[in-house]
C-alpha cells in the first residue's frame, strides 16, 4: 500500500499506536490523546474496566478477575480487538463530533519501518474498526524525522533514532525515503528489565514496577551522582519486604549490554549507506526521538561510542505523531515520501 502526499493531506486523524503510549492528533484540534496503550478487562464478563492512565495504574495490582492487557507491542498491534476497544474508549466521543460534521474519516498511522504485511494489516484493521474509511501508513522514522524538523525531503542524509518502549529504530533518510535502517531491542522497557534482573540476581530482591524508573533516573541522572539509592522490594527467598542500597555504577553496568547493541546497529546502518551520505552525517550527526531518547545520559553515551554529534529532539516522544500532523496539514514540501 502506498500513499501520496495528497492522500495524507486528506486525512483528518493521525494515530501513533505505540507499545507504551497511544497518541492521536485531529486536524484542527491538535493532540487529543496521549495515554498509555493499556486496557483493563473483566475476565469473567469481558467488560472493559479501564483504559489509558487508569488501566496502567492497575498493572501489577489486579485481583484474578481483572486482566491488564497491552494490545500493542514494538509498534505493531498484537491484539486487534483490544486495540479497537482501547481506541474507541480513548477517542470515540471526539470522533463522533467529526462524523456529525459528515467528515469522511481518513486516518494516517505510523508503522515500524520493517513491519511485515500482517502487522500493517493489523494497524489498518484496528483503525477501520473505529470508523476510519481509509487508512494511510507512514513508517515511523520518516514521520519522526518530519516531526522534529529534519529536512528529510532534501537530497541530504539525516539520521534518526526512534527510541521506543522495547525497540529503537535507526534510519538514514534522504529524498523522503529510508536509505538504510535497522532495529535493535533497546528501549525504556529493556532498560527496566535490565535493572530488575540485576537487582534480582545481585540482591535477591524483586523490585515493584513503580520503583524501577525512579531508581534508574536517580542513579544515572547526573554525571556527579555518587550517592547510593535505597529501594524497597520483596525478598526472593523469604517473600518479606526488604530494603537494599544500590550503587550507581551497578545500574550503569546493568544497562550496558542493551546500549552496546544500539551502537552496533548504528554502525551497521552507516556501513550500508553510500559514502556521500555518511559524509553528510559526519557533519550533522543524529537526532534522537521517542520517549526513551529521554533516558539520562543516552545522548552522551552515543556521542562517546560513535564520535558523531547527537541531538535530542524537542518533545522527542511526540515527534512521530507531530510528523503525521505536519503531513496532514500539508506543512511539508512535496517529496516522494516512502509511505506504505
Ligand atoms: N523522561 C523519561 N526518561 C526515561 N525514559 C522515558 C522518559 N519518558 C518516557 N520514557 C520511556 O520511553 C518509552 C516510551 O516511549 P514512546 O512513548 O516513544 O514509546 P512508544 O511509541 O509507545 O513505543 P514503541 O515505539 O516501542 O511502540 C517508555 O519505555 C518509557 O519508559
Automatic annotation (TrEMBL):
InterPro entries: ATPase_NBD (IPR043129), MreB (IPR004753), MreB_MamK-like (IPR056546). Its main location: cytoplasm. Signal peptide: none annotated. Keywords: ATP-binding, Cell shape, Cytoplasm, Nucleotide-binding. It is found in: Cytoplasm. ATP binds at residues 165-167, 291-294. PANTHER family: CELL SHAPE-DETERMINING PROTEIN MREB. Belongs to the FtsA/MreB family. Forms membrane-associated dynamic filaments that are essential for cell shape determination. Acts by regulating cell wall synthesis and cell elongation, and thus cell shape. A feedback loop between cell geometry and MreB localization may maintain elongated cell shape by targeting cell wall growth to regions of negative cell wall curvature. Forms polymers. This is Cell shape-determining protein MreB. It comes from Streptomyces iconiensis.
Amino acid at each position: 500500500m502506498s500513499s501520496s502526499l495528497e492522500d495524507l493531506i486528506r486525512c483528518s486523524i493521525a494515530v501513533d499506536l505505540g507499545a507504551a503510549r497511544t497518541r492521536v492528533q485531529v486536524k484542527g484540534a491538535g493532540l487529543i490523546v496521549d495515554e498509555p496503550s493499556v486496557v483493563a478487562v473483566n475476565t469473567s464478563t469481558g467488560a472493559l474496566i479501564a483504559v489509558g492512565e487508569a488501566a496502567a495504574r492497575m498493572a501489577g495490582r489486579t485481583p484474578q478477575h481483572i486482566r491488564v492487557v497491552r494490545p500493542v507491542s514494538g509498534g505493531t498491534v498484537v491484539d486487534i480487538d483490544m486495540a479497537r476497544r482501547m481506541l474507541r474508549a480513548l477517542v470515540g466521543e471526539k470522533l463522533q463530533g467529526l462524523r456529525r460534521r459528515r467528515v469522511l474519516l481518513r486516518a494516517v498511522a505510523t508503522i515500524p519501518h520493517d513491519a511485515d504485511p500482517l502487522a500493517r494489516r493489523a494497524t489498518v484493521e484496528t483503525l477501520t474498526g473505529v470508523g476510519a474509511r481509509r487508512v494511510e501508513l507512514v513508517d515511523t522514522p520518516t514521520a519522526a524525522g518530519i516531526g522534529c524538523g529534519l529536512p528529510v525531503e532534501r537530497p541530504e542524509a539525516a539520521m534518526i533514532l526512534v527510541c521506543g518502549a522495547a525497540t529503537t529504530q535507526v534510519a538514514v533518510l534522504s529524498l523522503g525515503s529510508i536509505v538504510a535502517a535497522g532495529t535493535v531491542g533497546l528501549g525504556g522497557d529493556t532498560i527496566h528489565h535490565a535493572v530488575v534482573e540485576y537487582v534480582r540476581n545481585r540482591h535477591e530482591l524483586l523490585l515493584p514496577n513503580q520503583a524501577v524508573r525512579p531508581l534508574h533516573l536517580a542513579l544515572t541522572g547526573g554525571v556527579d551522582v555518587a550517592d547510593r539509592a535505597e529501594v524497597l522490594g520483596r525478598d526472593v527467598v523469604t517473600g518479606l519486604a526488604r530494603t537494599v542500597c544500590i550503587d550507581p555504577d551497578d545500574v550503569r553496568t546493568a544497562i550496558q549490554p542493551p546500549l552496546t547493541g544500539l551502537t552496533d546497529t548504528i554502525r551497521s546502518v552507516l556501513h550500508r549507506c553510500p559514502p556521500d551520505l555518511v559524509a553528510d552525517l559526519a557533519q550533522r550527526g543524529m537526532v534522537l526521538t521517542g520517549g526513551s531518547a529521554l533516558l539520562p545520559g543516552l545522548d552522551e553515551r552515543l556521542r562517546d561510542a560513535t564520535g558523531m554529534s547527537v541531538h535530542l529532539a524537542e518533545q522527542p516522544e511526540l515527534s512521530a505523531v507531530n510528523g503525521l500532523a505536519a503531513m496532514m496539514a500539508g506543512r511539508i514540501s512535496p517529496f516522494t515520501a516512502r509511505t506504505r
